[in-house]
Amino acid sequence: MSQPQPGVWFCELCGEAVFSLGKPARCPACGAWPQLMVQPTAPPRVLARDQVYDPEVVSGAQRMIVQELDTSELYSRVQASATAPLLRVTFRSLQRIEGRHATLLCAIFKLKRPAPTLRPDLSALSDRELIELIRPREDETIVMYQQEIAKVPGTELATVYQALIDIEQDHNALSARLLGMFS
Ligand SMILES: [Zn+2]
Questions:
Q1: 83 found inside a domain
Q2: CA 166 – ligand 1 centroid, Å
Q3: Is the N or C terminus of the chain more exposed, i.e. has fewer CB atoms within 10 Å?
Q4: How far is the CA of 37 from the centre of ligand 1 (A)?
Q5: CATH number, domain containing residue 77
Q6: d(CA 163, ligand 1 centre) in Å
Q7: What's the predicted TM-score (pTM) here?
């Protein structure tokens, strides 16, 4: 078997360029799964950009941007309240990824990034209680994306939304592992 070759990989979901020894397991910026990591052709292109969308699709996207920003803010609060260092670095990573999702949706729909609504302090919660906040939140986001996919079946935008669902499912799998470690 040949050795993996170092090279630049391109994320078709968010546009990140990644220098890596072999195909990355996930996009480090947005968490996209490897089927969306490609070796750049010239020029590389990101999914679902430079298209015109129906107002109903745009308003759905606006709701998703708010949802992603609010989830990023939730992870920021959770990160600030967690006592275990592993949880703090984990939640900071999730905070960045959800923020990246808002950024890529703003780019697709050419929308200004709204200011996030700040959430209350969570420091009264235990580490375990903080981890338990993840799954309901991610499940809610997944259902919202499924509703948006139903408006645009078979399109690149549907591929984008499905890729975002896959990433949120990663977060649920991570929360299940963390619950096992902090029980
Ligand atoms: Zn990406």
A1: yes
A2: 13
A3: N
A4: 8
A5: 1.20.1260.10
A6: 10
A7: 0.94
